[in-house]
UniProtKB/TrEMBL annotation:
InterPro entries: F-box-like_dom_sf, F-box_AtFBL13-like, F-box_dom-containing, FBD, LRR_dom_sf, LRR_FXL15/At3g58940/PEG3-like
Coiled-coil region: none
Signal peptide (from-to): none
Biased composition, class Low complexity, residue ranges: 1-12
Protein name: F-box domain-containing protein
Residues of the F-box/LRR-repeat protein 15/At3g58940/PEG3-like LRR domain: 133-353
Region (Disordered), start-end ranges: 1-40
Pfam family, any one: FBD
Length: 481
């Protein structure tokens, strides 16, 4: 390097040193520079009390919230001023008597308001019924927004003091209690309630209709194992999502009738059983239809326009064009049955199929150009085939879509087998004739299905911000197929 270049480099280095800002002293703590255990608070501790209180209220357990008091003197008072998140479960104490004592102490010590109350490990019955009534009237539970009440007694009504929460409750999950008792019918008439889960409760048809009419902003409803109700009739101007199932020990038949639901976007059946009959009369915005169980008997749309019995479409007088996401469970998988559904729902863009393999199934269906399937020609963009084993019935079924879905963008295979290595995947590529695919831009992904044999995830049941509750890619906890 010559002298001129060296001089220029030295000048540039000196300029860079001048441009580096001098380090600043850390800002003084809120409590001053006089020392103390909080002389150098962390950035979280500098947040206002209101924000810190919200953080504490969102911690997963009551113990976690109370333990924040040991962090520093800054946090010592926050738990009592934070919205109460009280979970009465085994994590609070392993003994029921201790849990009861701890809850009474917390409600006496905390001034409120409350965000969430979950009681899942104390039975509603006997002398506990009066104790619950006293807890529900506690000032600490003023402003309650979320109530979860399980392990009750299906012969007992909820304590009347539940009405104490009526002005503020937004989410309610009620299990094993009697809502058919005359005095109990208005208990759940909450004007701000947006989400309601009923599990194993006893309720009559008139009581359910009164309940839905009284919850004037309700958006999401889950009915699971309802007792004493042969027909669940839904009339609601605000409901956007309905999930329904029949438990292992519930009596069949069960019928769900969507009589008038102008805002309904999702109708999902989950669990091991569903209603014997689902009848959709008025649901003009229905976009997601999830019925993964093959055990139902009859599905009727409109006034007899589409009738499906035992997973076989038998009447296709008029198609349903609003449904964009369709979930099916198919034994075989049975290509003829699935194609019949696609003719019923010609505008489906995403198709989920839960396969239950039957070795003797023949899936050699030919695609007739004189009788095209609108869905395959114009709309079907994504397919997820779960419990894929790569056997001949699976391959023939999937190959039909590979060769005929003209606007397909993605097809996922949830591989239900021990090996899903590169050699096996390459063999599947050849057997599925991916080089001859109808959509040249389509992508095909093979991933292990770790025994997760159903698509439905209840935690997304009420997430209306997710357009497709079955799309696991939208949730960071559900990245696999």
């Amino acid at each position: 390097m010559d002298d001129a270049a060296a001089a220029a480099a030295a000048a540039a280095s000196k300029k860079r040193r001048r441009d580096v800002p001098a380090p600043r002293d850390p800002p003084a703590s809120r409590e001053g520079a006089g020392g103390g255990d909080d002389a150098s608070l962390d950035l979280i501790s500098r947040l206002p009390d209101e924000i810190l209180g919200t953080i504490i209220s969102l911690l997963p357990s009551t113990k976690d919230g109370a333990r924040t008091a040991i962090l520093s003197s800054r946090w010592r008072h926050l738990w009592r001023s934070a919205p109460l998140n009280l979970a009465v479960d085994d994590a609070l104490s392993s003994q029921e008597s201790e849990r009861i004592a701890v809850v009474s102490e917390i409600l006496a010590a905390h001034p409120g308001p409350a965000r969430r109350l979950c009681i899942s490990s104390i039975f509603l019955g006997g002398h506990h019924h009066a104790r619950f009534d006293g807890w529900f009237r506690s000032p600490a539970l003023g402003g309650l927004e979320e109530l979860e009440f399980y392990r009750g007694n299906s012969k007992r009504a909820l304590p009347p003091s539940v009405l104490h929460f009526a002005p503020t409750l937004r989410v309610a999950s009620i299990g094993r209690c009697n809502l058919s008792v005359i005095d109990a019918a208005p208990v759940l008439a909450f004007p701000r309630l947006k989400q309601l889960n009923l599990s194993g409760v006893a309720v009559s048809e008139p009581a359910l209709l009164r309940l839905l009419a009284a919850c004037t902003v309700l958006e999401s409803l889950e009915l699971m194992g309802i007792r004493g109700l042969s027909t669940a009739r839904i009339v609601s101007p605000t409901l956007r999502s309905i999930g329904v199932s029949v438990g292992h020990y519930e009596e069949l038949p069960e019928e769900l009738v969507i009589e008038d639901a102008p805002c309904l976007e999702r109708l999902i059946s989950f669990g091991c059983n569903g209603p014997r009959t689902i009848r959709v009369i008025t649901a003009p915005k229905l976009t997601v239809l999830g019925y993964p169980s093959c055990r139902f008997y009859e599905l009727v749309f409109g006034l007899g326009t589409i009738i499906v019995k035992e997973m076989i479409p038998i009447s296709l007088a008029v198609s349903v064009r609003t449904v964009k996401v369709l979930v099916l469970e198919s034994i075989g998988p049975n290509l003829d049955v699935v194609v019949g559904f696609l003719r019923c729902f010609p505008c489906v863009e995403k198709l989920y199929i839960q396969s239950r393999l039957r070795k003797d199934m023949k899936n050699l269906g030919q695609y007739g150009t004189l009788d095209p399937i609108e869905c395959l020609e114009l709309n079907l963009k994504a397919i997820v085939l779960n419990t894929y084993e790569g056997k001949t019935p699976d391959v023939d079924f999937a190959k039909f879509f590979v060769l005929n879905a003209k606007v397909l963008e993605l097809m996922k295979f949830g591989v239900y087998r021990n090996s899903c290595n590169q050699k096996w995947v390459a063999n599947q590529h050849m057997r599925l004739q991916l080089d001859n695919r109808a959509s040249r831009d389509a992508r095909f992904d093979f991933e292990r299905d770790y025994g997760n044999c159903r698509f439905y995830y209840k935690k997304h049941m009420h997430d209306m911000w997710i357009a497709d509750p079955f799309d696991r890619s939208l949730c960071k906890f559900c990245r696999k197929v």
